[in-house]
Amino acid sequence: MAGGVRARRKAERPGEILEAAFEEFVQNGYAATRLEDVAARVGVTKGTIYFYFENKEQLFVAMVRELSRPVHLQAEEFAASNSSTAPEFLRSYLCFLYRIIATDPRGREILRLLIAEASRFPALIDEHHQNFMGPVVRRLRQVLDDGNAKGEIRQSSVLEFPELLLAPALSLNIWMLLFSDRRPIDMERHFEIAVDLLLNGLLPRTTSESNKP
Q1: What is the pTM (predicted TM-score) of this model?
Q2: Domain spanning 60-204: which CATH class is it, in words?
Q3: pLDDT over 70 for what percent of the chain?
Q4: Is 83 within 8 Å of 92 (Cβ atoms)?
Q5: In angstroms, rounded to a whole number, what is the distance separating the alpha carbons of residues 128 and 77?
Q6: In angstroms, rounded to a whole number, what is the distance separating the alpha carbons of residues 22 and 30?
Q7: Best-predicted range by mean pLDDT among 15-24, 100-109, 181-190?
Q8: Under 8 Å CB-to-CB from 139, ≥6 apart: which residues?
Q9: Which of 68, 87, 103, 100 is nearest to 177 (CA)?
Q10: Which of 76-80, 85-89, 105-109 is predicted with the least confidence, judged by mean pLDDT?
């Protein structure tokens, strides 16, 4: 029995180290984080950290990859779903992305760390784009193009830059990172207004609207 408990604890150890590393990196930033502090948070020796991770750089990369994995999988699954019309899909997809980007504290902190350490970890940034931002933008472009072909989405320059549809969620994310609870904001209302703004810019215009100067 004791051997089974030790084996289970050993198997769980890398995950515990990554969780502790996340807390330390968030609290102190990459440069100021020390492996001995990560070890102390887990309750192990510094040598245990080195048993699983070669150095602090590898620990940071592994932490970002592992803690980002659930979001990447959710985004992949949602992108594969379908709705009857392009506007319906865009609304539900943007709601999903809003929740990930703007309202998930861990997701916000991972993004903050990626932005802060972009110059130090360019390959990790490229990997994040490949696994998350790239598929999201491609899916949005596909929906916009298909909707335009069906007459559900008007011809617009935004078809060239689907990234613009992420702007409200990203701006809210930055707001939350800067102000947190000190400047509360109604995120549900923010989302509804953002969707209204975006879809009104994408939906076909009526004849009277097209004739307006």
Answers
A1: 0.82
A2: mainly alpha
A3: 90
A4: yes
A5: 17
A6: 10
A7: 15-24
A8: 79, 93
A9: 103
A10: 76-80
Statement: residue 6 has pLDDT above 80: no
Which pair of tokens denotes residue 187?
């995120």
Side chain identity at residue 108, one-letter code: R
Q: Where do runs of H (alpha helix) occur along the chain?
A: 2-32, 35-42, 46-52, 56-79, 86-98, 105-116, 122-128, 134-149, 167-179, 187-202, 207-210
- CATH number for the region 1-53 comes to 1.10.10.60
Q: Domain residue spans in the chain?
A: 1-53, 60-204
The average pLDDT across 68-83 equals: 82
Residue with tokens 């990459």: 30
In angstroms, rounded to a whole number, what is the distance separating the alpha carbons of residues 24 and 22? Answer: 5
Backbone angles phi, psi at 168, to 5 degrees: -60, -45
| Residue that the structure tokens 């997809």 belong to | 93
Contact 158, 202 (CB under 8 A): yes
